[in-house]
Amino acid sequence: MDTYHHLLLAADFSEHSDRVTRRAQDLAQKYQAEISVLHVVENLPIADAAYGPVIPFDADLTDQLIEAATKRLADLADGMSIPENRRWIEVGSPKNEIVRIAKEKNVDLIVLGSHGRHGLALLLGSTAASVIHRAHCDVLAVRMRE
Amino acid sequence: MDTYHHLLLAADFSEHSDRVTRRAQDLAQKYQAEISVLHVVENLPIADAAYGPVIPFDADLTDQLIEAATKRLADLADGMSIPENRRWIEVGSPKNEIVRIAKEKNVDLIVLGSHGRHGLALLLGSTAASVIHRAHCDVLAVRMRE
After folding, report:
1. How far lies A65's CA from each of A74, A88, A97, in Å?
2. What is the pLDDT of residues B68-86, one digit of tens each?
3. B1 occurs within a structural domain
């Protein structure tokens, strides 16, 4: 059986996401695999009542978000002994960036959190489901307890 | 870290699904977990040009499908040393049955195949993505190479 060589933890820093982190660590250990961590700073369209949704281009806000995310990622990665060259921050759509980075970095297992979806959220889909559709590799969705 | 105790392999007998089987076996071994196997005989509406889609109720056809699936499941489960009381055949919608059985049987990790989705298939969604939305437990989607 092919083993896993390179795991990617897609960290979203949401509540209860430590379960995802611990599972990624645990699997990396079991497979003696490298582990990298990615956080995507989401570029959300800001709703504008008069003109409809617009894509924001607020460089200051984005810079602040990146700065805050970089700190949180450093704390997380330090705790997991992940070296600096395997910590990545990207700006964009989480599903696209996770799939892109996984491919670029030859990841063979993506580990991410899966949030419960009901009602409208079920129709809108989720990052985990989109990543599964598009990833070239295996995906473990760790159920977040709400 | 919580370990996995009970893995459910959702077997679809499609081409290349041996990768999914081997991964489930490998994980069960690494976690010293029990492994069960489920195959869902899909109840597809049959397209009828004159009256639109109709739900078939062809008992003979369903019986034949169940019989064929039972044989394939027995071959698979024998090869994996899965005892008879942990082999399940259900008739219905794969996503619903996988989620239901996983809950009923206290499964903590579902292992299933994920097929590539492009174009229309991407819009229609997949069993793997639906299972992730609804499952109460973790889900590993093993990428099928096409």
Report:
1. 14, 14, 16
2. 999 999 999 999 999 999 9
3. no
Does the beta-carbon distance from A1 to B25 stay under 8 Å? yes
pLDDT in tens, B83-96: 999 999 999 999 99
Q: Model ipTM?
A: 0.87
Residue B18 in domain = yes
Query: How many domains does the structure of chain B reveal?
Result: 1
Nearest neighbour of A138 by CB, restricted to B30, B132, B143? B143
Q: Is the dihedral of CA B35, B24, A116, A61 positive or negative?
A: positive
Residue numbers in A near B133 (CB within 8 A): 114, 116-117, 122, 126, 129
Element (H, E) at B121: helix B120-124
**Considering the domain boundaries, does residue B106 fall inside one?**
yes
Tell me how far apart the alpha carbons of residues B27 and B109 are, in angstroms, rounded to a whole number: 10
The CA distance from B59 to the nearest CA of chain A, in Å, is 33
Determine, for residues A125 and B126 on separate chains, whether the beta-carbon distance falls below 8 Å. Answer: no
Instruction: Give the domain range for residue A123.
Output: 6-143
Band the pLDDT of A14: cuts 50, 70, 90. confident
Residue B25: Cβ within 10 Å count: 19
> Is residue A10 within 8 angstroms of chain B, CB to CB?
no
Q: What CATH number is attached to the domain comprising B67? A: 3.40.50.620
Tell me, yes or no, whether A1 lies in a domain.
no
CA–CA min distance A116, chain B (Å)? 6
